[in-house]
């Protein structure tokens, strides 16, 4: 009699064979959604769901690495999350910071923190900056953005503000700034400056919206919505998303 593990492994093998090697995403964004609902359905606390989700990140990153993805952006804490009750927010921030520190300590991936760390308590922000300094040496590591204190509108507003301040410091008049302002002016001041836009964005938990994730960068991104809550996100879920992407005809607005 065939065991479920064997059937699952066989299905994974089938999915991998269905991937188009000439059309795999190099940059994948993931909205880690559903931790609280996962915990609620088990009758557990929100913090238990957040911890379970945090513990799952390294495993999912290893799957992304296996597929050949070069850059992963994980949305871990949104600007809207700061409206949550203080007790839950404080605990959530502690869980996220510890998760990033654990990822960095593995020395396996090139971790970069993106977002407005000024929204976080100073101690938490400093821990995140320290973790991001622990870059692996001597290997071509997969790059991982952890988006913390992140919101798409907030990022765009910050980029415009940074651009205007730079121009003002150079003594350039507002009229000349407006005359020369282009989309590239914003690109040069985004958190993801120098990185490719996401080819594929995955959202777990069944919600079918971006909720402000990478608004500027997602103009040509392919979207994939997965019903599974983040703590239960499996290798097959990732492979299905990548297979779906590899089989799409991308027109890129043309």
Short key terms for the protein model shown above:
alpha/beta, 254 residues, 9 helices
Principal-axes shape call: globular
Counted by DSSP, the helix tally is: 9
Helix content: 40-55%
Radius of gyration: 19 Å
Q: Largest sheet at a glance?
A: 6 strands, parallel
Structural class: alpha/beta
Distance between the termini: 52 Å
List the secondary-structure elements in sequence, H or E.
HEHHEHEHEHHHEEH
The average pLDDT value, as a whole number, equals: 94
Give the amount of beta strand, in percent.
5-15%
Main sheet strand line-up: 3-4-2-1-5-6
Q: Which spans have pLDDT < 50 for at least 5 consecutive residues?
A: none
Molecular structure report:
The mean pLDDT is 94. α1 packs parallel to α9 and α2 crosses α3. This protein has 254 residues and is an alpha/beta fold. The longest helix is centred in the N-terminal third of the chain and has 22 residues. β3, α5 and β4 form a beta-alpha-beta unit. It is built from nine helices and six strands; from the N terminus they run αβααβαβαβαααββα. Strands 3-4-2-1-5-6 form a six-stranded parallel β-sheet, sandwiched between helices.
